[in-house]
Design a protein that fits this description.
By secondary structure, the chain is of the alpha/beta class. The chain has two domains: about 150 residues, Rossmann fold (3-Layer(aba) Sandwich); about 190 residues, Rossmann fold (3-Layer(aba) Sandwich). Helices cover about 45% and strands about 15% of the residues. α3 packs across α7. The chain is globular.
């Protein structure tokens, strides 16, 4: 978001009308705020969701058209759409100096995003993609480069930022989870059954709540099920924490109030779904509890990325991963551990 805002300022000062685009409404608010902080001429800055642009171009919603599961979840998690005037929309399609900065650019291969980028500036817009994870779980990486350009070298890794003082060290603690009566099964249907058993497991949820309660505050708890997030949020409140659940069912304005409360020190814990996986700027966060992981490399890195952002008095951050006895969740954890091992500055500890 910092880079997006500064790039927008530079391009606007050179006469471009800059469209800051993303899949999430929360991120749109954030991108516009950073552009304003950098002193960008705001009459040339247009912050708008992909959902809004796609619907204006085609009359269809992104959630209807998204093909990949992650793209679809990113779209449907944000039912709110950003406003856009008729003049802004006409300018977006004109062949004048138009630039599009697509944040979280790993979503570029989605047909909906490509439709939007292809229409910008009548097909002649300057396109810039920003993401900490320039790859896809479905191996459609080349489409990112085709629409947003090649990766600019040198690549800035999390370890580079930590070693040079731009981010704080992180310790990932692996905690053994209680057995939850998960039956051995195979395929997508098997994972659905296992996930249901995990999120409904009383002993496991109690452990998650205990970890969050003992963790240094503020703490973020992430899951991929709305009802699970709401349940955990209720449990944290009952434990005496100032906590809120943040899901797609919560209006954008309310989500912003919750995030602002955490930044101001008035909120101890947030339990979130996929809303927390991308772009969320909450530098005060000191702890993370991953209630449900999954095998996505993108999400794994994005979640740890929430933690390492510097903040006054913040010397390190801690993430908690649950090690379930078996099944898909254990295999997914092994994949995430391989990924964590690729970052030399990330310390993994088995408790």
């Amino acid at each position: 978001s910092y880079v997006s805002g500064y790039l927008a300022k530079l391009l606007a000062e050179r006469g471009y009308h800059v469209y800051l685009a993303a899949m999430q409404l929360d991120l749109i608010y954030q991108l516009r705020e950073f552009a304003e902080r950098w002193g960008a001429p705001m009459d040339k800055i247009h912050a708008v969701t992909v959902q809004t642009l796609y619907k204006r171009l085609t009359g269809r919603s992104v959630a209807e058209a998204a093909e990949d599961e992650e793209d679809r979840e990113a779209a449907s998690a944000y039912a709110d759409e950003s406003g856009m005037t008729e003049d802004e929309f006409s300018l977006f399609q004109s062949e004048k100096k138009v630039a599009v900065i697509m944040d979280e650019a790993h979503h570029v291969p989605a047909e909906t995003v490509k439709e939007v980028l292809g229409a910008a500036g009548g097909g002649w817009a300057l396109r810039v993609g920003l993401t900490a994870t320039p790859w896809r779980n479905d191996n459609r990486d080349l489409e990112i480069y085709a629409y947003a350009g090649a990766v600019v070298e040198p690549r800035i890794t999390s370890s580079f930022l930590i070693e040079n003082g731009y981010a704080v060290p992180v310790e990932i603690r692996i905690v053994k989870a209680p057995p939850c009566g998960v039956a051995k099964s195979e395929g997508a249907e098997g994972w659905v059954k296992e996930l249901k058993a995990l999120v409904e497991c009383e002993a496991r949820n109690k452990l998650i709540a205990e970890l969050a309660a003992k963790a240094e505050k503020p703490v973020l708890v992430v899951t991929n099920r709305v009802k699970h997030a709401e349940l955990l949020g209720k449990m944290l409140k009952e434990a005496g924490l100032k906590a809120e659940a943040v899901t797609g069912a919560v209006k954008g304005e309310v989500r912003k109030e919750i995030y602002d409360a955490l930044r101001a020190g008035r909120m101890e814990a947030i339990v979130a779904t996929t809303l927390a996986d991308e772009g969320l700027d909450l530098p005060p966060l000191k702890s993370l509890v991953i209630a449900v992981g999954g095998r996505s490399r993108t999400r794994a890195l994005q979640r740890i990325g929430r933690l390492v952002r510097p903040w006054p008095g913040k010397r390190m951050a801690v993430a908690y991963e649950l090690e379930d006895p078996g099944g898909f969740s254990r295999l997914h954890l092994k994949e995430r551990l391989k990924l964590y091992g690729a970052e030399p500055a990330w310390r993994v500890v088995h408790l």
